[in-house]
């Protein structure tokens, strides 16, 4: 069958991922078929296999792309920080996490809700990326505790609790709401600061 008009790999590939992300977030991974994704993109179902080997690979690619972007974004943010100032690093992490994730609500949603649908190998790969990100916050907290800047007994547990709290912004924040995103960042930074006794 001839290629669908306007279907080029550099255009259709991203459209396939965008459609899958949208559909997985709206209906759940298990409920979405490759045929539905193809219909959303406007290509024949068989054409999807030019862009992904199967639905599992597509889910893994979406979750990995999100984590790769998150880690790269934080690395870029972190290079601007003074290495000896854990308080400034913690504030930067707080604001970065909120800002990055509120712009990617669907990706964040499936990153948490669809982990269970990954194969064991893919689950471990995404888990390793998540642990890398969590460890960057854990290191900030541990350094702050060593310097007496923070009052934290368990940096690892505190890091996971803070990330869960910050990620929760996605469940309620709306751009048209009463608070602007910078105001939300400041509100949450105050909560984080109080949590670690900074």
TrEMBL record:
Keywords: DNA-binding, Transcription, Transcription regulation. Residues 33-52 bind DNA. Gene3D superfamilies: Tetracycline Repressor, domain 2. PROSITE patterns: HTH_TETR_2 (PS50977). It comes from the Bacteria. SUPFAM superfamilies: Homeodomain-like, Tetracyclin repressor-like, C-terminal domain. Residues 10-70 form the HTH tetR-type domain. InterPro entries: Homeodomain-like_sf, HTH-type_TetR-like_transc_reg, HTH_TetR, KstR2_TetR_C, Tet_transcr_reg_TetR-rel_C_sf. PANTHER family: HTH-TYPE TRANSCRIPTIONAL REGULATOR BETI, HTH-TYPE TRANSCRIPTIONAL REGULATOR RUTR. This is TetR/AcrR family transcriptional regulator. It comes from Roseovarius rhodophyticola. The lineage of its organism: Bacteria, Pseudomonadati, Pseudomonadota, Alphaproteobacteria, Rhodobacterales.
């Amino acid at each position: 069958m001839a290629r669908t008009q306007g279907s080029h790999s550099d255009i259709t590939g991203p459209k396939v991922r965008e459609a899958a992300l949208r559909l997985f977030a709206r209906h759940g991974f298990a409920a979405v078929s490759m045929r539905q994704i193809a219909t959303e993109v406007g290509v024949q179902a068989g054409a999807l296999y030019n862009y992904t080997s199967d639905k599992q690979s597509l889910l893994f690619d979406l979750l990995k792309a999100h984590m790769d972007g998150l880690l790269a974004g934080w690395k870029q943010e972190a290079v601007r920080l003074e290495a000896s100032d854990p308080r400034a690093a913690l504030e930067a992490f707080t604001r970065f996490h909120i800002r990055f994730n509120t712009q990617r609500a669907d990706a964040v949603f499936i990153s948490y809700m669809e982990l269970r649908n990954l194969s064991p190998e893919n689950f471990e790969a995404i888990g390793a990326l998540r642990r890398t990100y969590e460890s960057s916050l854990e290191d900030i907290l541990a350094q702050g505790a060593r310097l007496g800047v923070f009052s934290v007994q368990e940096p690892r547990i505190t890091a996971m609790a803070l990330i869960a709290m910050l990620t929760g912004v996605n469940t309620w924040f709306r751009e048209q709401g009463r608070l602007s995103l910078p105001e939300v960042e400041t509100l949450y930074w105050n909560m984080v600061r109080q949590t670690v006794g900074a």
